Amino acid sequence: MSAKSYSKIIGSNDRINVAIQGLGRRYGAYMSAIADKNNNIELSYLCDVMKSQRDKAAIEVSKKLGKTPKLENDIRKILNDKDVDAVFMATPDHWHAPGACMAMQAGKDVYLEKPCSHNPKEGELLVAYQQKYNKIVQMGNQQRSSSQSQEVIKAIHEGVIGDVYNAIAFYTSKRGPVPHQKKTAPPEGLDWDLFQGPAPRREYTDDTWNYNWHWYGWDYGTAEMGNNATHELDIARWALDVKYPEHVDVKSGKFHYKDDGWEMYDTMEATFRFAGNRSIQWDGRSRNGYDKYGAGRGTLVYGSNGSAFIDRDGYKLFDIKGKEQKTIL
């Protein structure tokens, strides 16, 4: 028996058979964990509604794993496979909650990219499905897994900057003009009906499928609030140890490249007020690259005795005078 064949037998009862739905910008982040033999993971399927995405991913995955998983267009066929234990879901936003609910109903655990839902009601449905089917569902707020973030949040909760009362979560980007939508035939190899999935049906417009779905209205995307605010607001809520706000005030609009095809807000200022006189501000600017906070994204946390700056690279602690006390990067 070859070593390759023998390796498939070891721990076969404990092996986790997984599928990836959505083969765009995110799936590559899963590959190191899937390829790690200590995790005993078998990647059984690669699924995408675009043939070129499936073909490209098959080449890349075969290089890393030494074999090519089954390629599939329709996630429903994968969910019917009783040997699949879990699904990585990296689709456009409108598929997240419906796809996760379908997976749980089929007996699968789910790793769900942010945002977990396209709207608040879908978030409630996710919780209801998880409770009914008792499956594991993890949303992709990856910074929660950062040892530096865990360390500074623990210190904040232990009082390192005193009583925390406010956080500012921010994201700054230089996204440029977006072309206007133009009705055209779907690109070769795209299953447009499956792309739309649970969304209202409409004719295809160029170039919806390749990322611009984020900005072409509400059918598929959530703009920057769902695209990036989910990360920084999560850190802010974690640091302040708060759940649901008592009051929310939002000012938003499209202020840049006013004649282009971007149909969502590109700027948002939001204030969330919580019990105990705690508050969080969201400052999201998708298309103005001015570096207001000295970083492109992050979270500032204010306490009675100091403050903290937290981002994906680490954190900094400051005393009440603003003097830097500790830096972990």
TrEMBL record:
Keyword flag Oxidoreductase: yes
SUPFAM superfamilies: Glyceraldehyde-3-phosphate dehydrogenase-like, C-terminal domain, NAD(P)-binding Rossmann-fold domains
Gene Ontology molecular-function annotations: inositol 2-dehydrogenase (NAD+) activity; nucleotide binding
Recorded superkingdom: Bacteria
Keyword Plastid: no
Enzyme Commission number, as recorded: 1.1.1.18
InterPro entries on file: Gfo/Idh/MocA-like_OxRdtase_N, Gfo/Idh/MocA_oxidrdct_glycsds, GFO_IDH_MocA-like_dom, NAD(P)-bd_dom_sf
All copies of domain GFO/IDH/MocA-like oxidoreductase, residue ranges: 199-308
Signal peptide start-end: none
UniProt KW keywords: Oxidoreductase
Top-tier EC class: oxidoreductase
Protein known as: Myo-inositol 2-dehydrogenase
Domain Gfo/Idh/MocA-like oxidoreductase N-terminal: 16-140
